[in-house]
Amino acid sequence: MAFQTIGFIGLGLIGGSIAKKMKSNQPDIKIYATAHHKETIQEAYREGLIENNDLLPLSAFSDCDFMCPGSTEPRISASVKRYYPQRLLYHRRRKHKNGNS
After folding, report:
1. In what order do the strands lie in the sheet with 5-9?
2. Distance between CA 44 and CA 53 in Å, rounded?
3. SS3 assignment, position 62
4. Is pTM, for the whole model, over 0.85?
């Protein structure tokens, strides 16, 4: 299955690695992302990995075929799940060593 547009909510180590692999497998794919730090987004944009060069609100992902929420922050994960449940490519909350998720 080929995707045209993918949104990454949280472009950290895992999300960035997945995005790079997707881009190498399908160079014409459009990837949009947001992260905690603007510098992360700007660096990914300079590398040609993503289409946007600034932080995006969740509403900006409405045109994406699928979304990969990488953030474990409950507020963000819940918002993505609530507004875009049919487009989630991956959603998993991690359990921390202390038992909290």
Report:
1. 30-34, 5-9, 66-69
2. 8
3. coil
4. no
pLDDT tens digits for range 24-71? 999 999 999 988 889 999 999 999 999 999 988 877 887 888 877 765
- List all residues 6 or more positions away from 81 whose beta carbon is below 8 Å from its beta carbon: 69, 88, 91
For residues 32-69, b (16+ Cβ closer than 10 Å) or e, as one string?
A: bbbbeeeebbbbbeeeebbebeeebebeebeebebbbb
Rg of the chain in Å (alpha carbons): 13
97 DSSP 8-state letter = T
Read off the tokens for 14.
């895992």
The answer to whether 17 and 3 have CB atoms below 8 angstroms apart is no
Residue 50 is encoded by which pair of tokens? 């993503």
79 with 73: CB under 8 angstroms? no
